[in-house]
């Protein structure tokens, strides 16, 4: 059986976790959980210890992203997917434009398209592996796009659309935030979840919100539009200013996120994180470009993600068979996005991943392919 192949230990990554979400969790985060056992885990989120934990994270995120004056770190229950519905209720005034180049951009578009109180959204669609960018259009009050499309490994620029005065720039940063360079001033709402570059678990969303976005939230909340409490961004802003969430948050998630932020900040913050993922990505894409059996799925080099790498495999390679051998040897979660339906692998290269392990991964793949492909 091919999955009984034993990859030499000197080739194998020291840590075989390359998932595109959740990220590899580091040992120091587990130690942080142990230290939090008595005063944080299993305690009230309305009391000082947990509120201080939330406050620490909000302050560190503000520092990590060098938030412009007036911007606020807002958080709430649920993941980034919940924010799509919250935006449809509490952020879009009348009509949104969505730049879609993968699964997650299309899901946000579906949320506003299905909202009965909004005009039909404008959709700019690009093929998987390329990107779509916003275009000036009359009547649009929210321009939305993913910074990094997790499903395809394509990364788009984050720049404010010229001439779109009064409209909000709403960017999904879920798999990009904390792993690549960003000028937050180019956005009004930059939202993400903690299970990617911040190496924690899901169940929460975070958003970096501009004064214009907060004003829009308050204006819509004051109108006669019905907004469910869990989707109320006004409630989320009010609770965040008190370092809490509407309902009980996942405290263990917050503990691990704080530990990851401490590690990132102590090593140089955003510049450190971006250089680390860029190093990993360079190793992966250089290998694929030189290989006779692999090539980067995203054709344009500037649009290849530094945090989620997608690699197409030659038709002579059975991706499922390759991944089975890797998994049997402790190298896990390099599966392609299921709905993309391609013969490929997808490699998470978040800051927690050691770039040297990416090199070891490619060496292990080469070793396996020599034995699987005639």
TrEMBL record:
<protein>
    <recommendedName>
        <fullName>phosphoserine transaminase</fullName>
        <ecNumber>2.6.1.52</ecNumber>
    </recommendedName>
</protein>
<keyword id="KW-0718">Serine biosynthesis</keyword>
<dbReference type="Pfam" id="PF00266">
    <property type="entry name" value="Aminotran_5"/>
</dbReference>
<dbReference type="InterPro" id="IPR015422">
    <property type="entry name" value="PyrdxlP-dep_Trfase_small"/>
</dbReference>
<keyword id="KW-0664">Pyridoxine biosynthesis</keyword>
<comment type="function">
    <text>Catalyzes the reversible conversion of 3-phosphohydroxypyruvate to phosphoserine and of 3-hydroxy-2-oxo-4-phosphonooxybutanoate to phosphohydroxythreonine.</text>
</comment>
<keyword id="KW-0028">Amino-acid biosynthesis</keyword>
<dbReference type="InterPro" id="IPR000192">
    <property type="entry name" value="Aminotrans_V_dom"/>
</dbReference>
<dbReference type="GO" id="GO:0004648">
    <property type="term" value="F:O-phospho-L-serine:2-oxoglutarate aminotransferase activity"/>
</dbReference>
<keyword id="KW-0032">Aminotransferase</keyword>
<dbReference type="InterPro" id="IPR015424">
    <property type="entry name" value="PyrdxlP-dep_Trfase"/>
</dbReference>
<keyword id="KW-0663">Pyridoxal phosphate</keyword>
<dbReference type="InterPro" id="IPR006272">
    <property type="entry name" value="Pser_aminoTfrase_mycobac"/>
</dbReference>
<dbReference type="InterPro" id="IPR015421">
    <property type="entry name" value="PyrdxlP-dep_Trfase_major"/>
</dbReference>
<comment type="pathway">
    <text>Amino-acid biosynthesis; L-serine biosynthesis; L-serine from 3-phospho-D-glycerate: step 2/3.</text>
</comment>
<keyword id="KW-0808">Transferase</keyword>
<feature type="domain" description="Aminotransferase class V">
    <location>
        <begin position="42"/>
        <end position="331"/>
    </location>
</feature>
<keyword id="KW-0963">Cytoplasm</keyword>
<comment type="similarity">
    <text>Belongs to the class-V pyridoxal-phosphate-dependent aminotransferase family. SerC subfamily.</text>
</comment>
<dbReference type="InterPro" id="IPR022278">
    <property type="entry name" value="Pser_aminoTfrase"/>
</dbReference>
């Amino acid at each position: 059986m091919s999955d009984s192949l034993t990859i030499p230990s000197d080739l194998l990554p020291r840590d075989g976790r390359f998932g595109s979400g959740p990220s590899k969790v580091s040992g120091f985060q587990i130690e942080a959980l142990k230290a939090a056992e008595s005063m944080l885990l299993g305690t009230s989120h309305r009391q000082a210890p947990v509120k201080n934990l939330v406050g620490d994270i909000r302050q560190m995120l503000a520092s990590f992203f060098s938030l412009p004056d007036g911007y606020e770190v807002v958080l709430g229950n649920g993941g980034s997917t919940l924010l799509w519905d919250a935006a449809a209720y509490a952020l879009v005034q009348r009509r949104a434009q969505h730049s879609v180049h993968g699964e997650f951009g299309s899901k946000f578009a579906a949320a506003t398209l299905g909202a009965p109180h909004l005009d039909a959204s404008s959709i700019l669609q690009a093929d998987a592996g390329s990107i779509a960018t916003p275009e000036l259009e009359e009547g649009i009050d929210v321009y939305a796009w993913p910074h990094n499309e997790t499903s395809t490994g394509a990364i788009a620029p984050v720049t404010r659309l010229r001439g779109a005065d009064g409209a909000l720039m709403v960017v999904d940063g879920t798999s990009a935030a904390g792993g690549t360079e960003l000028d937050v001033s180019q956005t009004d709402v930059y939202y993400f979840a903690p299970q990617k570059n911040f190496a924690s678990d899901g169940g929460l969303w975070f958003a970096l919100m501009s004064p214009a976005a907060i004003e829009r939230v308050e204006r819509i909340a004051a109108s006669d539009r019905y907004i469910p409490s869990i989707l109320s961004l006004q409630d989320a802003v009010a609770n965040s200013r008190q370092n809490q969430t509407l309902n009980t948050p996942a405290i263990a998630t917050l503990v691990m996120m704080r530990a990851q932020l401490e590690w990132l900040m102590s090593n140089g913050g955003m510049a450190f994180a971006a250089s680390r993922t860029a190093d990993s990505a360079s190793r992966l894409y250089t290998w694929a470009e030189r290989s006779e059996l692999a090539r980067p799925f995203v054709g344009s080099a500037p649009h290849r993600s530094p945090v989620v790498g997608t690699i197409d495999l030659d038709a002579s390679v059975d991706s499922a068979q390759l991944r089975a051998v890797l998994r049997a040897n402790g190298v896990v979660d390099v599966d392609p996005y299921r709905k993309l339906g391609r013969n490929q692998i997808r490699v998470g290269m978040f800051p927690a991943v050691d770039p040297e392990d990416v090199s070891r991964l490619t060496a292990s793949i080469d070793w396996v392919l020599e034995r699987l492909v005639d």
